[in-house]
């Protein structure tokens, strides 16, 4: 897994790490059970403080995407083949989706443009995972 971060982005580094890990799972680069680098190792690899990586991993853990164990480290807990989402996920996700779609509306994207972009992104996951997502 190669993470690309934008150190000049307005998006916090920990959020970028979280987002890239989720995208790697959706793209099929990481599967359920895949080990993630330790926070210290990833911090060193990226040239950032390991506490920043720890914040990203903690966010992924609270969202049920990874599990963290002192002995085995961070491991992917869910992937596109893991079955239905846990209770409450869809409602919480829809709230975040509403905000993301509101941003598109505020910036003038039409309903058709938003739908086309959503379809393109979903198709990219299908292409990389063989239709598993």
Explain what this protein looks like in three dimensions.
The chain is mainly alpha-helical and 133 residues long. It is 54% helix and 6% strand. It is built from five helices and two strands; from the N terminus they run αααββαα. The chain has helices at residues 13-26, 39-46, 50-62, 89-106, 111-129, and strands at 66-69, 73-76. It has a two-stranded antiparallel sheet with strand order 1-2. Strand 1 (66-69) and strand 2 form a beta hairpin. Helix 1 (13-26) crosses helix 3 and helix 2 packs across helix 3 (50-62). The longest helix has 19 residues, at 111-129. It is globular, with a radius of gyration of 16 Å. The two termini are 19 Å apart. The mean pLDDT is 93.
Question: Can I get a quick summary?
Answer:
Helices cover 54% and strands 6% of the residues.
List keywords for this structure.
5 helices; two-stranded antiparallel sheet; 54% helix; mainly alpha; 133 residues
Task: Explain the layout of strands and helices.
Layout: H1 13-26, H2 39-46, H3 50-62, E1 66-69, E2 73-76, H4 89-106, H5 111-129
Antiparallel strand pairs: 1-2
């Amino acid at each position: 897994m190669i993470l690309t971060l934008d150190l000049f982005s307005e998006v916090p580094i920990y959020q970028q790490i979280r987002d890239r890990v989720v995208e790697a799972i959706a793209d099929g680069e990481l599967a359920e059970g895949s080990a993630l680098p330790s926070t210290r190792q990833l911090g060193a690899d990226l040239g950032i403080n390991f506490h920043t990586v720890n914040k990203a991993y903690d966010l992924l853990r609270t969202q049920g995407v990874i599990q963290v164990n002192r002995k085995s480290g961070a491991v992917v807990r869910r992937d596109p083949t893991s079955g239905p989402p846990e209770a409450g996920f869809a409602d919480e996700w829809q709230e975040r989706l509403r905000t993301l779609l509101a941003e598109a509306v505020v910036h003038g994207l039409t309903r058709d443009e938003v739908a086309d972009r959503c379809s393109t992104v979903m198709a990219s996951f299908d292409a990389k995972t063989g239709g598993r997502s």
